[in-house]
# Entry
Amino acid sequence: MPQNWNRQYAAILAILKNMSALGLVMVLSGCSALSEVEAIGQNSDPATDAPASGPGSSVVEAAGTGAAGAEVSGQGDRWQQRYSQALDQGMAAAVATQTAQTASDWQQVEGQWAGAIASLAAIPSSSNIFSTAQQKRQEYEANRAYAADAAAAKTLPTATVVSVGDGDTLRVQGQGDPVTIRLACVDAPETNQAFGPEATLRLRQLLSTGQPVEVRAIERDRYGRTVAEIYSGGQSVGLQLVREGYAVVYEQYISGCAATADDYRQAEAAARNARRNFWSKPNPTMPWDFRRGGTTPGAPTTPSPATPSPAAESLPACVSRDCDCSDFATWQQAQAVLDAFPGDPHRLDGDHDGIACESLR
# Structure
């Protein structure tokens, strides 16, 4: 083999050695090109270092001479570049797939797969890599469908804020009738408890009327309210209240937020250590204890937050402990208790609209 050809052959091998893995079609194309070049070299004339007559010369003449041959070669390079671009896009999408968590993440992944598919779709049927591109396109279509399903599964229903009742209760308007929401996994001070009004004000600042929110419903409580995590701008509103010291972790129900329970606890610890709002006083009474007229051990005695009216003598026996909506046979009975006890110590009016146990109506 001539010395010039040895140099060309070595250069080709060096290029192939340093190429990134761009898929099977690139490897096959490289091998094909190498075989063709090798064949041309074997048919060259040692004296002139030019192709000899015969099959080898016809290949060179068809592929490398004249305007038509240059155009065919240029088009082949163009579609090969498009295929390489699609593989690069697919690699980026595959990496993003491994780290995607939220609905937004999966939507971005879906878009990346769609971009790779578009690059493959641009390769015409006349290209010699069309068949390989179509196989890769089918693979990417399956990946895009998977990302779309994941995004849909993680997309929470949206609603619009109608009103805020207190520090952990609000009403939202979804596709149906307005729904009362009790924030999951947290408990805010009562409105007639220290920092209760401040907690209500803060929730109203975070969730203004007409604001869109995402709702992760967990269950319905005994008052007929939907217990749910509310997200605004992708952030948990309940977690923010805890972080700022306007609510505490409701350990009795923290299992409803199992995936983020540690985040809630860490936020509460930080608020307590910084003495933020509710934690600014030593040994504050927990909201659940306050509702029962009790106190945290070691804390000053807190008087009962409500004094019944004289009409309370004719009310159900549950008023001496803690009534809930299941204690009443009719809505009128529940409403009578609400009217008799200012401040609603039995929490019969979760949305503070003056109507008790709306589920009984």
Summary: The radius of gyration is 36 Å. The beta strands are 44-45, 50-51, 158-166, 169-173, 178-183, 186-187, 212-220, 226-232, 235-236, 248-249. The chain has a mean pLDDT of 76.
